[in-house]
């Protein structure tokens, strides 16, 4: 399965984490989201860690599904605002008009 996504992104957000634990304890943290894993980090006392990301609405679609696309040997898609459209013609084209086999909505956000 190959996923394709489109992000309606906003300016970056930066998160800063500082180890202010008492007794000079080390802080172990693990930063991850549904789609990204920044891994485990160890912060010594008074040290900081930061990361940035672009929050926003994520659109996604399974661009190839064997059950749906098994007859497709060269698959061409046009990505529109409301979702991807599989092309009947065999070349990349943003103005294919009615030459679409099917247009799909984005998969629901989870």
How many distinct domains? Answer: 2
Biggest sheet record: 3 strands, antiparallel
The side-by-side strand order for the widest beta sheet comes to 7-8-9
Individual helix count: 1
Q: Please, what is the average pLDDT?
A: 79
- Taking all Cα atoms into account, the compactness measure Rg is 21 Å
Q: What overall geometry do the principal axes of the alpha carbons give?
A: elongated
**Separation, N- and C-terminal Cα atoms:** 18 Å
Secondary-structure class: mainly beta
Pfam family, one: Self-incomp_S1
Organism: Quercus suber
Protein name: S-protein homolog
Keywords: Secreted, Self-incompatibility, Signal
Write the layout of secondary structure elements.
Blueprint: E1 2-9, E2 13-18, E3 27-32, E4 37-43, E5 48-53, E6 56-64, H1 66-69, E7 77-80, E8 83-87, E9 100-103
Antiparallel strand pairs: 1-6, 2-5, 3-4, 7-8, 8-9
């Amino acid at each position: 399965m190959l996923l394709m996504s489109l992000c309606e992104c906003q300016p970056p957000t930066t998160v800063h984490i500082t180890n202010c634990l008492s007794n000079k304890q080390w802080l172990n943290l693990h930063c991850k989201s549904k789609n990204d894993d920044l891994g485990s980090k160890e912060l010594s006392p008074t040290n900081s860690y930061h990361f940035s990301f672009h929050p926003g609405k994520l659109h996604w679609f399974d661009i190839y599904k064997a059950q749906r696309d098994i007859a497709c040997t060269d698959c061409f898609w046009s990505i529109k605002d409301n979702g991807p459209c599989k092309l009947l013609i065999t070349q990349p084209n943003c103005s294919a008009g009615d030459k679409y086999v099917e247009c799909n909505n984005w998969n629901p956000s989870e």
